[in-house]
Specification:
It is found in: Cytoplasm. Pathway: Carbohydrate biosynthesis; gluconeogenesis; Carbohydrate degradation; glycolysis; D-glyceraldehyde 3-phosphate from glycerone phosphate: step 1/1; Carbohydrate metabolism; erythritol degradation. Helix content is 44%, strand content 15%. It contains eleven helices and eight strands. The longest helix has 17 residues. It starts with a strand and ends with a helix.
Length: 253
């Protein structure tokens, strides 16, 4: 059985004070909900703080992005080796904001996935379609292409140690959320696509839902067969909301 994951993505948010308060709260929540992997992906500048506050608890952590290089003349980038050194478990790659604002292609995202995994991090591959693509019925075409780029570079076996996060772009930060039925159908379609390469890998990989998942929508979403938790944005900055989402995942574990 796949263990659910509830992962917060803080994006460009946080201060030393808020990070301290949130991590102190979330370590307790993670310790109390052992049926769920609870993680926070923080801005790189705060990962050291998260490590110092969360070490010894069941809370896991990681980065919101990672570079393809491990070292060198790449000013401003964050090496997977550096991120791993601060106790990180995860590295998000391919978030729609990176794809959109930084023009990251499927091939660039696949290279970041490989760099993260090669250096001991678990890549969290974000995939998802725009509103226009959704309206055109191209959701699975987009998701499959984004996954296929990773398979072409790393092989299907790479998904034995990775997570997929389906985040419909039209639902990120908009307040819109795919209905449980829509989300389940996409997750099932993703798993079916993976099965064409390797059924065992497809059955084992954890596929999270993102896109304005909140305390109200989480229970129904997490009750779906192929939804294994959530990648949570704004709600992960609120103790009560993130706690409720974790508890919803625990109830369906």
């Amino acid at each position: 059985m796949r263990k659910p994951v509830v992962m917060g993505n803080w994006k460009l948010n946080g201060t030393k004070s808020t990070v301290t308060d949130l991590i102190k709260a979330f370590t307790g929540v993670a310790n109390a909900n052992e049926k769920v992997d609870v993680a926070i992906c923080a801005p790189a500048i705060f990962i050291g703080m998260v490590e110092s506050l969360a070490t010894g608890s069941k809370l896991q952590w990681g980065s919101e992005d990672v570079d393809v290089h491990t070292s060198g003349a790449f000013t401003g980038e964050n090496s997977p080796v550096m991120i791993k050194e601060f106790g990180s478990t995860y590295a998000i790659v391919g978030h729609s904001e990176r794809r959109g604002y930084h023009n990251e292609s499927n091939e660039v995202v696949a290279a970041k996935f490989k760099a993260a995994q090669d250096n001991g991090l678990v890549p969290v591959l974000c995939i998802g379609e725009s509103e226009a693509e959704y309206d055109a019925g191209k959701t699975l075409d987009v998701c499959q292409a984004e996954i296929k780029a990773v398979i072409d570079l790393c092989g299907i076996e790479a998904f034995k140690n990775a997570i997929i996060a389906y985040e419909p772009i039209w639902a990120i930060g908009t307040g819109k959320t795919a209905t449980p039925e829509i989300a389940q159908n996409v997750h099932a379609g993703i798993r079916a696509f993976l099965k064409t390469f390797n059924a065992e890998v497809a059955d084992g990989v954890r596929i999270l839902y993102g896109g304005s998942c909140n305390a109200k929508t989480a229970p129904e979403l997490f009750a779906q067969k192929d939804i294994d938790g959530g990648l949570i944005g704004g709600a992960s900055l609120k103790v009560a909301d993130f706690t409720a989402i974790i508890e919803a995942a625990t109830a369906n574990a």
